[in-house]
UniProtKB/TrEMBL annotation:
InterPro entries assigned: TRAPPC13, TRAPPC13_C, TRAPPC13_M
Protein name: Uncharacterized protein
Domain Trafficking protein particle complex subunit 13 middle: 2-113
Any one Pfam family match given in the protein's UniProt record, by short name: TRAPPC13_M
CC per GO annotation: TRAPPIII protein complex
Sequence ranges assigned to domain Trafficking protein particle complex subunit 13 C-terminal in this UniProt record: 126-217
Length: 229
């Protein structure tokens, strides 16, 4: 996923309480931001810090934000890959005497993800599935390199993960920055939390193989005999 989660810790290092009037994240032009500092309460969201947003001396609060690429950039793997600037924090507060203060940070940086030549992610996967019952997933394969690739996919069965279908499938040529979605079917032979593993992509042009294990996780549940009664 291209989502970026930002956690900001704010501490009151003065000797008196502060009223936190606003703590917001202004995203960079390529991102939309969602604040994760409230919980659903009726028709409105209630702050996780309560109705009175006071920060006592030496207390610390953690603010969480989720940034998602805008639709026009989400499909451009090469563009998002190189983006390090995610936005800046805007903090406004009042002292117990009513004096207002404001702090705006410089542009915050993130470490650019290293996708390598090919990025494989899951677009669709169920959270919970039945034991030994096939389920469908959808893989998204993106060419993050600057050259065209001719890809072949192999599906290797692991100890508890078993793939359905033909291994060694020809996926064809994938140009730089292009993506393709690929539906696959798999099942697990063991209960509990299982990791989806065993996918191999080979670029026939360079004879180079890319291995993908622990791509995602799902929970396998055994249906009891009572459920069929």
């Amino acid at each position: 996923t291209d989502e970026v989660f930002l956690e900001a810790q704010i501490q009151n290092i003065t000797t008196s309480p502060m009223f936190m009037e606003k703590v917001s994240l202004e995203p960079s032009m390529m991102y939309n931001v969602t604040e994760l500092n409230s919980v659903a309460s009726g028709n409105e969201g209630e702050s996780t810090f309560g109705k009175m947003s006071y920060l006592q001396p030496m207390d610390t609060r953690q603010y969480l934000y989720c940034l998602k690429p805008k639709p026009e950039y989400a499909e451009k793997a090469g563009v998002i890959k190189g983006v390090t600037v995610i936005g800046k924090l805007d903090i406004v507060w009042k002292t117990n005497l009513g004096e207002r203060g404001r702090l705006q940070t410089s542009q915050l940086q993130r470490m650019a993800p290293g996708y390598g030549d090919i990025r494989l992610s899951l677009e669709v996967i169920p959270d919970t599935v039945n034991l030994e019952e096939p389920f469908d997933i959808v893989c998204k394969i993106t060419n993050c390199s600057e050259r065209t690739m001719d890809l072949v996919m192999e599906m290797c069965n692991m100890r508890s993960i078993h793939w359905c279908g033909i291994s060694g499938r020809q996926l064809g040529k994938l140009s730089p920055g292009a993506s393709l979605s690929l539906p696959l079917t798999v099942f697990s032979s063991e209960q509990g939390l299982q990791s989806i593993s065993g996918l191999r992509l080979t670029d026939t042009f360079l004879k180079r193989t890319y291995e993908y294990d622990d791509i995602a996780q799902t929970i396998e549940i055994a249906l009891s005999e009572a459920s069929f009664a």
